[in-house]
Amino acid sequence: MAEAHQAVAFQFTITPEGMDLQLSYQALHQIYRSGLRSWKKRISRMQNRVIKGVYPASPSSWLFVVIAILATMYMRSDPSMGLIAKIQQHLPLSLHVSLSSQGQTMLSALVFSTLLWLSVILALRFCLKLLLSYHRWMFEKHGSTSTTTKVWVTLLRLLSGRKPLLYSYQTSLPHLPVPTIKDTLSRYLESVQPLLTGPGFERMTGLANQFELSLGNRLQRYLKLKALWATNYVSDWWEEYIYLRSRGPIMVNSNYYGMDFLYVTPTSVQAARAGNTITALLLYRRKVNREELKPSRVPGTVIPLCAAQCERMFNTTRTPGIETDVLQHWQDSEFVAVYHRGRFFRLWVYQAGRLLSPREIQSQVQRILDDPSPPQPGEEKLGALTAGDRVPWSEVRKRHFGAGVNRRSLDVIERAAFFVTLDEEDQGMRGDDPAGNLDRYAKSLLHGKCYDRWFDKSFSIIVYKNGKNGLNAEHSWADAPTVAHLWEYTLATDAFQLGYTEDGHCKGEVDRSLPHPQRLLWDIPSEVQAQVSSSLAVAQQLADDVDCHVFPFRDFGKGRIKKLRISPDAFIQLSLQLAYYRDRGGFCLTYEASMTRLFREGRTETVRSCSNESCDFVKAVAGGEEEEHCRQLFRQAAEKHQNLYRLAMTGDGIDRHLFCLYVVSKYLGVDSPFLKEVLSEPWRLSTSQTPLQQMELFDLKNNPEFISLGGGFGPVADDGYGVSYIIVGEDMINFHVSSKHSCSGT
User: Fold this and answer.
1) What's the average model confidence in pLDDT over 456-475?
2) Which phi and psi angles does 261 have, rounded to 5°?
3) How far apart, in Å, do the first and last CA atoms of the chain sit?
4) Which one, 3, 152, 355, 421, has least CB within 10 Å?
5) Which residue stretches of 91-216 are H helix?
6) pLDDT in tens, 516-561
């Protein structure tokens, strides 16, 4: 094979005259460049460790401290109050012999200066942590900021004024606090009051009181002990028990999708769109590795959010197990895995340490598209194993993919930077049925054909025949805002930075000597093929049952809502409550995802959007009450929702606390009727907002057609709805609604 020949740096033969050594200088040069790139990455990482290790100070501040101490000593003053002399007395005997008295004093002054500098850093970091633990600003009314908050903002700006790296704030973020049992139970009972009848609410109140007086405080003590010891008392259990221990299909049930631009497709050339998309993603990976991305912040503030989820974005795969799956993360790989017409390929995206140009990647992708070879026996639908139940996939993987050619090929997929599907269909808003085409586009991204995606990868990119693209993301390693940040950067870089030629091809030159992409080889016995068919049947039944509807709402948007002095999110959530009531004639337990990334390793918390106030508003509207009264109830409900959202963001939510108490009870082997009932309640309306985080990348005023569609997910309950929405610009809200055909009521 050509790539194997190019990998040989030297050859030798034994002749009667001696050994004839033949060096390939080109190959040696490639090895040299690859090694150079590797060392540059190591040095860059070491440099970043130092910079973020001393944040909010800077490495150069050490020199300032040293000069200040030496200058003070030169003026015959002792700033250390005798500590420098003490350090000098305790220097090793060898230094007393080899250094003069002046040299010993200088060395002692350097040691003292360094210790003083480190002490100042620890003090600054402690102050920054205290400042980031202050959350009262969030509960103050807009336009009426207290003096305390104004002072807090000033101090926070002073301490975080230096340009931070991506992970600079990590060690300064506070730990997620454990709410009190009493507060959590009180908020829980308030949240279920509008959903239960009088006797039902009394029964639940009795269960809650019994839990508080008996088992609750015991479980709480264990939870507080974990909070003292662990970085975050929720996140590891949430990842394991909610995601990794789920034994059903992750396709539809857990994975979610992101869409391309609504109105624009930058090019109709499939290989070119793949070339720019892959390049943009790898540029983002480079920024993550070098920590060049700005830390995410609460919109409109200087308050940083946890960036821990970025660490496992690339080169990550969820591997199946019998009882629990495992997330595996590898060092940066120099290739991506590609699927096209039933064949798997390894596509190298680096050559000797150099990232290939977009045009070169396009050329390599085109080689895959032009490859006429058929799939090997059992290869075409192999991806269905990742779409079906987890236990059969684990058993097959252990028996048939643990060694030999199957192990090597599976390693390529699992260790790849990410997975790419070159789809043979056209997708997007097109033709005579734009709305129906958007629905089909959503279903294609959510599950495809159930075998042409690798659902275990941290994320998979799908590039369609007409140039449209999208992604499917696995949920356990990160939440939607982290993936949305990646996707925003990818779309913006593709369209505005990399660009295309007039005929729709990528820019740049092509090195024609690049080795062809490698076909992955498989040996799939009949037993594995039978399991593939079985997993595909399970996945296909699930996919056929999902109904998706995507629609852009253009009547009004954020601009008009804000003029009413109401939170756009609260406005949409109350609209959803009204819509559900009109659809089903009642109310249901409603899940809205909120973030807890104000805290270290924070992920999400639940906002229970169905409240007493929201129900009062909905009943008033449905009952045809006076408009002014409805308007008053609406404002009360919106304010209540905002308060619930703030509580969730600042660590005073309900559901993660109850979830962790339940996990502790299982570890202790004790049963709680209250916790068992709480954790079994179905979320018939599951909602989430996709935030626009990098507005500076999109100039929607001059390029209004570059509007993002956002993304969506499957319904959480069989008889419920999944609703995702993205607020785009001032005049549009895009909705993604999912339900199941098998439920006659949705």
Assistant:
1) 97
2) -60, 150
3) 56
4) 3
5) 93-98, 101-132, 147-159, 181-192, 198-211
6) 999 999 999 999 999 999 999 999 999 999 999 999 999 999 999 9
pLDDT in tens, 318-345: 999 999 999 999 988 999 999 999 999 9
Check if the beta carbon of residue 592 is closer than 8 Å to that of residue 638: no
Longest pairwise C-alpha distance within the chain = 107
pLDDT per residue over 210-256, tens digit each? 999 999 999 999 999 999 999 999 999 999 999 999 999 999 999 99
Q: What would the pLDDT profile of 374-386 be if each residue is shown by its tens digit?
A: 999 999 999 999 9
- Report pLDDT digits (tens) over 426-442: 998 876 677 789 999 99
- Which token pair is 649? 């963001």
Distance from the Cα of residue 286 to its chain's centroid: 16
Going by the DSSP 8-state scheme, the letter that residue 497 receives in this structure is: I
Contacts of 625 (CB under 8 A, 6+ apart): none
For the record, the structure tokens of 440 come out as 């089909």
Hey, what are 675's tokens?
């916790």
Are the C-beta atoms of residues 214 and 584 closer than 8 Å to each other?
A: no
d(CA 649, CA 643): 10
Rounded Cα–Cα distance for residues 692 and 698 (Å): 10
Residue 510 φ/ψ, nearest 5 degrees: -120, 130
516 as an active site residue: the answer is no
SS3 13: strand
Q: What is the Cα–Cα distance from 689 to 711, expressed in whole angstroms?
A: 9
Region of poorest pLDDT, from 134-143, 363-372, 551-560: 134-143
Return the bridge partners of 472, or none: 257, 460
Mean pLDDT of 24-45: 68
Side chain identity at 710, as an amino acid letter? Answer: G
Of 412, 417, 409, the closest CA to residue 315 belongs to 417
Distance CA 625, CA 629 (A): 7
Residue 604 CB contacts under 8 Å (≥ 6 apart), including other chains: 238, 479, 593, 594, 595, 596, 656
- Strand, coil or helix: 348: strand
Determine contact, residues 475/254, Cβ cutoff 8 Å: yes
DSSP 569-595: HHHHHHHHHHHHHHHHSS---EEEEEE
Dist CA 490 CA 259 (whole Å): 12
User: Are the beta carbons of 736 and 710 closer than 8 angstroms?
Assistant: yes
Cβ-based neighbours of 506, under 8 Å, separated by 6 or more: 272, 275, 276, 279, 357, 358, 359, 361, 362, 498, 500
Q: Supply the mean pLDDT for the chain.
A: 91
> Which candidate in 340, 400, 475, 736 is catalytic?
475
